[in-house]
Amino acid sequence: LWTVLVLVTVIAVAVGSWWVASGRYGEVPQVLGQDITGARSAVEQAGFTSTVSKIWSDDDPADAVTGTDPETGERVVRGSEVAVLVSKGQPPVPEPSDSDTLASYQAKLQDRSLTWTVSADVWDDDAPAGVVAKVSPTSGTTVDTGTEVTVQVSKGPRPVKVPGVSGMTEKKATQTLENAGLKVSGTTEAFDADVDGGDVISTDPDTDTEVPSGSEVRLVISSAVTVPDLSGKSMEDAAEALRDAGLNPVTGEAVSDTDEDAGKVAETSPSSGTRLDPSRNTTVTLHPSDQVKVPFVIGKTAKDARKDLEKEGFEVKIDGRSGGRVISQSPGPRTRVTEGTTVTLRTI
């Protein structure tokens, strides 16, 4: 019995020593040239648990089995996990996302077995400050593993000064601002006695304010209405023109110191060219002329001359023969005088 027990103990110790020393280990099999399914089967038949790990490779096409981890031939405890390495091909330079900081983009490069160098920060209208703006080689380019990618971080949009557009039309001001890299967000109306209606008074932000490129600028547009030049127009036409301009016409006293004919507009109050605030004052007074031209009657008979003058509203005085011909007149021909003025005719 003791002999049997000693033999069993010796055998158990020998087997245990063998198992601890080498029996529990298996050799990782060769899987090159196999497809993924075959490679995993070979690993499992060797007594291991198989997984798949994809890696970037300069030498093997995508989806080709490139080896194992641990490597082929290594002795590993049976039941351990052995990864079948599958090629993803050469890595492309990753595309920076809208939120990629330097650190997050470096992690992407590292994941693709790429290295990096950081260059000077750049102004960029599309990338916010602090995110990756540019990379070289350009994103999407297929490169060797270990390739160095130059990374530049955005400083945000380049600052620009708001250009002066006061006095410009809205269209021209908009074009000027857009050429400077800014956007017109809308308009606000205000009155300015020095700026024609529809033209730009100012901007918000103000001229020469430094703002990021792409910023929005609001235009302040003049609401002024300019009194038009109505001299020589009939009172009816002048009133209509004022109403069309948004102004309120009223008739004032006639004026004599004018070159316009009677009934025509001689002057306005406020005068033409004055800019009015349509929210406060829209009344324009029309002053007609009371002056008429003295007709040319020299050479006519006194009778015919009287008839022509009285038709135009003049009083007539004959100096000479009432049946004679007119040799002069006072006031002279085509002189402008007040209606009802007496014209003296000298006859022979």
What does this structure look like?
This protein has 348 residues and is of the alpha/beta class. The chain has helices spanning 2-23, 36-45, 102-111, 170-179, 235-244, 302-311; strands at 25-27, 49-55, 65-69, 75-77, 81-87, 115-118, 132-136, 148-153, 159-161, 183-190, 200-204, 210-212, 216-222, 225-226, 248-251, 265-269, 275-276, 283-288, 291-293, 315-319, 326-330, 336-338, 342-347. The strands form 9 sheets. The protein has a 3-stranded mixed beta sheet, with helices on one face. Strands 6-8-7 form a 3-stranded mixed beta sheet, covered by helices on one side. It starts with a helix and ends with a strand.
Number of strands: 23
Classify the helix fraction into a percent range: 10-25%
- State the secondary-structure class: alpha/beta
Secondary-structure element pattern, one letter each: HEHEEEEHEEEEHEEEEEHEEEEEHEEEE
In CATH terms, what is the fold-level topology of the largest domain? Trypsin Inhibitor V, Chain A
Which strand-content bin applies to the residues? 25-35%
- CATH top-level class of the largest domain: Alpha Beta
Tell me the major beta sheet: 3 strands, mixed
Number of domain units: 5
CATH architecture of the largest domain: 2-Layer Sandwich
Radius of gyration: 51 Å
Shape: rod-shaped
Number of continuous helical runs = 6
Strand order of the largest sheet: 2-5-3
Question: What gap, in angstroms, lies between the N and C termini?
Answer: 186 Å
What's the rounded overall pLDDT mean? 92
Low-confidence stretches: none
